[in-house]
Amino acid sequence: MAEASPREVVALAARAAELRDVVWGRALTYSPKIFLPLTNLCRNRCDYCAFRRSPGDAGEWTMTHADVDDLLARGASHGCIEALFCLGDTPETAFPSYRATLAEFGHGSTVDYLEWASRRALSVGLLPHTNAGILTAEEMTRLRPVNVSLGLMLENVSERLCARGMPHHRAPDKRPARRLRMLDDAGRLRIPFTTGILIGIGETRRERVEALLAIRRSHREHGHVQEVIVQNFDPHTDTRMSVARPPTDEDVAHAVALARLILDHDVSVQAPPNLNPERTKLLVDSGINDFGGISPVTPDFINPDRPWPHVEALAGVLADLGFSLGPRLPIYDGYIENRDFLDPSLLERVERERASLRSPIGVRAVSRAREAEPS
């Protein structure tokens, strides 16, 4: 499968789509979210990243408490369900000024701040999901009672991509062993988990397969991987890879199909619609069942020049293809029903949100909120 010819890629995609129809049906999903990037300070320097900053760089930020509360209120008022906290890797280990900022806020660490922000999200009715880069088992244990799920992009398991001249050479937190350790730690802690692969950064097709197999191994051991993102590299100006060639349609179709065929059937496969605005049919035909988070309030801070699609427009395209589109929670049903994977203090509010989505009134409320989406 790794070295499939163009004709074989078409056949793989058809097999993956057929499997998706059997296991997941033709009702595709997305998560209505608010995106809260607590800080874009990051100690890693990936060659393709336009998000990260160092203190003093143009465009660097750390959100204040007031910033967090404002975005959470806006998200709740627009019918969002998920509060996605996403930020740079372990910035306090690299930047004393950031540690001083945290102290001014009354926090001793980024995890302290995440715990506070997650509680604020819960207080306005949003369900937190955190992707904060590398976290220790102890840090994930702290966040588990205030997050319905956690995440970390594996990206790839190739040590070759960490060599000098390669995109992860200056990114110590992108070493495969570190990321695989966190993936397994999350499984041992019974935390519903989102991970994924990043395609087009110089990896081979075989290395993509190896990354998917590593995710499958961890999930088979712990049963915690609820969804896998197949994210395509998108070149950004002012980065070392600004002129690198992005993945082709065939690359994307092949990677999505491989994910659906390699991963266990209970793992959701998603691809970001804003990075593939002309590929909706291709993604569906290759086996995805989910589009990930879409926000009516905030941009994709990782890819700010790639706006989210309007949900109604996306739903219209899917209807023409014979599919429906509906909202979901940032924790999948199987992990709600298996009580080992959800802190008891979160169960009541998660069940309440799930019941709302399943009722016509709840679905209409989310649909009405979409009308307020930015153009």
Can you tell me about this structure?
The chain has a single domain, classed as Aldolase class I (TIM Barrel), CATH 3.20.20. 41% of the residues lie in helices and 13% in strands. The protein contains 13 helices and 9 strands. The relative contact order is 0.16.
Largest sheet: 9 strands, parallel
The end-to-end distance, rounded to whole angstroms, is 41 Å
CATH topology: TIM Barrel
| Percentage of residues assigned to helices | 40-55%
> Count of DSSP helices?
13
Structural class determined from secondary elements: alpha/beta
CATH superfamily: Aldolase class I
Order of helices and strands, N to C? HEHEHHEHEHEHEHEHEHEHHH
Give short descriptive properties of this protein.
globular; 9-stranded parallel β-sheet; 375 residues; 13 helices; 41% helix; alpha/beta; 9 strands; 13% strand
